[in-house]
Design goal:
The chain has about 425 residues and is α+β, with helices and mostly antiparallel strands. It is built from 11 helices and 5 strands. The chain has a 5-stranded mixed beta sheet. Strand 2 and strand 3 form a beta hairpin. Mean pLDDT is about 75; it is low at about 380-385.
Length: about 425
């Protein structure tokens, strides 16, 4: 009975180790099937060692097996050592914490031999929660998961701890071995249910991230398609202007001495046609130009003027989807703020590429009493509010600077991205 219990606990322990190492190392040396076979073998070996009931041997074997598990992933020796030490420290912390919680919940004095199984399960649940939270902090992708669902999921392990303590109390008060066995099995079921609940949570979160990535790629494709359609229309318009320009210039030449007013009118028409032919052009970069052209059309429908000064190369090392996120979200935020102001408003956008740095400044009008926040002011907060957080995430990726200046009637955001190179 002891060996089977220890084996079950050790298997769950190595599942936690796998989750921990996979989050912090990421790149595996072998397939998932081989890794789980190795972890199962280590679990059996650890259960055999635990059967000797030697605390010092248990600690040494835990350190050795943890380090052997880390060898299944790609990493440096120093990183393996540090991460293994952190995991062992978390394990040593949870054991006294589990015993303390269980002992505080007891109402009568009982012999420790009667509840060793239950405290071990309680310790595993606490360890799993701590490791999960640590992995949660490491994987910033979780920020896209709705907070309401995350809070509700946290309730499950808390209720599991309460349930484990309750079952342990019932088992301790029972004199029948069958009752103790049933309570023990139910505690083990609670332990593994915690794993499967958070496994589903993790898979669902990955699906949300993949869906978001797909939406970004689709948006990028739409921007490009829109841009190339506009380029094609502009080319057709330029060909028409070129075809008519020669005849119009002949007419201007003949009217210079005869009718200066007609000459000026004809020249103004020529200038107007030339200006319209270049109205959709902002810069040589296809993605940035497509995003700005799209957002400029949206701004015009809300009586917002976009004033831009852009000097960037046609090809940059920053990913196209990041450019879509960066400028799309910045302009969406500015347009949303301008919509709340009565009358004609303006957005000033300055983009410069200097010394391998992308320098961005965007300034827009806003309500005087409105306080800047990263949180969306829209009612549907579950599907909104990620805009500036996504921008900040991109800035952090390139070790950049994100600065906000609120002057009362306007808001200015300054961004610098480092290490951006020109692609050939």
């Amino acid at each position: 009975m002891d060996f089977i219990f220890n084996l079950a606990i050790n298997c769950f322990d190595f599942i936690i180790i796998y989750k921990y190492l996979n989050t912090f190392f990421g790149e595996k040396k072998y397939s998932t099937k081989i890794i789980f076979m190795v972890l199962l073998f280590l679990s059996i070996m650890h259960a055999i060692i635990n059967s000797f009931s030697l605390p010092l041997l248990n600690i040494v074997s835990t350190i050795v097996f943890c380090f052997l598990s880390s060898m299944l992933f790609e990493s440096s020796l120093n990183t393996r050592f540090i991460l293994c030490i952190i995991f062992i420290c978390i394990g040593l912390l949870t054991e006294p914490l589990g015993f303390l919680i269980f002992n505080l919940s007891l109402t009568t004095d009982v012999k420790p031999d009667n509840y060793v199984y239950f405290t071990s399960i309680l310790i595993e649940i606490i360890r799993f929660i701590l490791i999960f939270l640590l992995c949660h902090c490491k994987r910033s992708e979780y920020e896209y998961f709705p907070l309401e669902i995350t809070l509700r999921l946290v309730i499950f392990p808390v209720m599991s701890i309460i349930g484990c303590c309750t079952l342990a109390h019932l088992a301790i008060r029972s004199t029948r071995k069958q009752d103790i066995t049933i309570c023990l099995i139910m505690c083990l079921v609670l332990l593994f249910m915690n794993y499967f609940i958070f496994f589903i949570f993790d898979k669902f979160n990955n699906m949300m991230i993949e869906r978001r990535e797909t939406d970004l790629l689709l948006q990028e494709m739409l921007y490009k398609e829109d841009y190339y359609n506009e380029v094609n229309n502009s080319n057709l318009l330029l060909r028409e202007i070129k075809h008519n320009l020669k005849n119009e210039l002949i007419g201007v030449y003949n009217l210079i001495d005869e009718d200066s007013d007609k000459c000026k009118t004809l020249m103004n028409n020529i200038f107007f046609d030339l200006d319209n032919s270049d109205s959709s052009y902002f810069c040589d970069n296809v993605i940035i130009n497509a995003v700005l052209r799209n957002k400029n059309q949206v701004a015009k429908t809300h009586n917002i003027e976009l004033i831009s000064h852009i000097y960037v190369p046609s090809q940059l090392s920053i990913e196209p989807k990041e450019l879509c996120l960066l400028f799309g979200n910045l302009l969406d935020n500015s347009i949303e703020a301008c919509q709340k102001v009565i009358g004609r408003t303006k957005i000033y956008l300055d983009i410069q590429y200097v010394n391998n740095c992308l320098v961005i400044t965007i300034k827009n009008d806003k309500l005087y009493n409105e306080i800047f926040t990263f949180t969306s002011t829209k009612k549907d907060k579950q599907n909104h509010g990620f805009g500036l957080k996504s921008v900040k995430k991109i800035v952090d990726k390139y070790n950049g600077i994100f600065k906000v200046q609120d002057t009362g009637k306007s808001i200015q955001i300054d961004i610098i991205l480092y290490g951006i190179t020109i692609q050939t």
